[in-house]
Amino acid sequence: MQYRRLGSSGLKVSEIGLGSWLTYGTVTEQQQAMICVKQAYDLGVNHFDCANVYGATPHAAEKVLGDALAAYPRDSFVLTTKAFWPVGDGPNDRGLSRKHIFSEIDKSLQSLKVDYVDIFYCHRFDPDTDLEETVRALDDLVVQGKVLYAGLSEWQPAQIAHGIEIQKSLGLHKFAASQPVYNLLTRYIEHAVLPLCDQAGIGQVVFSPLAQGVLTGKYHKGEALPEGSRATDENVGHFVQRYLQDEVLDKVERLFGLAQESGLSLTQMALAWVLRQQSVASALVGASRPEQVMENVKASGVKLEADLLQKIEEVLA
Fold first, then answer.
1. CA-based Rg of the chain, rounded to a whole angstrom?
2. Is 54 a catalytic residue?
3. Are 3 and 46 a contacting pair, CB within 8 Å?
4. What is the pTM of this model?
5. CB 22 within 8 A of CB 33
């Protein structure tokens, strides 16, 4: 496993991180989740991502991840969580107000069984809360020691720029991490988000680098969905549907061929392609089986040759 610096911060994260969206506390039994976490940790993964809304109920995935990591020294891994999405029916059970952020961080810490998280993300942008209120609340959590670094997820460039401006003008702790979706099939961050964050020293921790499993090559045009795959799960299958179009699957088939020619699995090539960006500190993968963890970790350190990158661009065009 290789490690990268997160933006301009001093934090080092494994190139492959283990996420828990759509898996832990949802479709993966706790014992199996704990096996996956152990496999990841043993292979050098030090970066574990979660959120208060992951799982069948609020904080469910955090509890699973907290149990799985309890066996390891706290300073040996980087742990994250998030807040924004509704966790209840009350008017203050959502968003990025000071009240909601302070309430949720305490519940998250309790669920994760830790005294602090390394990164706390604003899970989306909150148009109903003044941004200064949000960034001041994040700064206070850092001062209190409950959070070491603040991050954001899926914000628009103008929103990121505004947050950076407020933090700078008020002398607050800066955002260290951005968590956007990024993969061979979804590349919007390349145009504005990456340049903006690079200039501000904000590192990228990307999610869905395998496009919900489509970039593993398990789905094929004109064939039935593989039994037991994420696409067949009635609870989480809708997230993958946007990728299951004939045009997309044709591209995936061609990418699969390029990977074979290069002696790589499509999974490894897709992850290495994401990590070709030096701005990307870590790629978050989901795993319901330890074999998946082992396959994903093999992408760490893989460098794609220029001619292969050109061929990939031709397919994607």
1. 19
2. yes
3. yes
4. 0.93
5. no
Pick from 14, 36, 41: nearest CA to 23 = 36
The answer on pLDDT for 230 being more than 60 is: no
Residue 149 burial (10 A CB sphere; 0-12, 13-18, 19+): buried
CA distance 264 to 256: 9
- The single-letter code of the amino acid at 300 is S
Catalytic residue (one of 3, 24, 41, 54):
54
Question: What confidence tens digit (pLDDT) does each residue in 120-174 have?
Answer: 999 999 999 999 999 999 999 999 999 999 999 999 999 999 999 999 999 999 9
- The secondary structure of the chain, three-state, reads CCEEECCCCCCEEECEEECCCCCECCCECHHHHHHHHHHHHHCCCCEECCCCCCCCCCCHHHHHHHHHHCCCCHHHCEEEEEECCCCCCCCCCCCCCHHHHHHHHHHHHHHHCCCCEEEEEECCCCCCCCHHHHHHHHHHHHHHCCEEEEEECCCCHHHHHHHHHHHHHHCCCCEEEECCECECCECHHHCCHHHHHHHHCCEEEEECCCHHHHHHCCCCCCCCCCCCCHHHCCCCHHHCHHHCCHHHHHHHHHHHHHHHHCCCCHHHHHHHHHHCCCCEEEEEECCCCHHHHHHHHCCCCCCCCHHHHHHHHHHHC
Give me the pLDDT at residue 239, please. Answer: 64
How far are the Cα atoms of 50, 185, 227 from residue 231, in angstroms, in the given order?
21, 17, 9
- Distant-in-sequence, close-in-space partners of 251: CB < 8 Å, separation ≥ 6: 185, 315, 316
CA–CA distance, 270 with 246 (Å, rounded to integer): 19
**Structure-block tokens of residue 216:** 């593993």
Please tell me the distance from the alpha carbon of residue 120 to that of residue 134, in angstroms, as a whole number: 12
Unique residue bearing structure tokens 């040759």 = 305
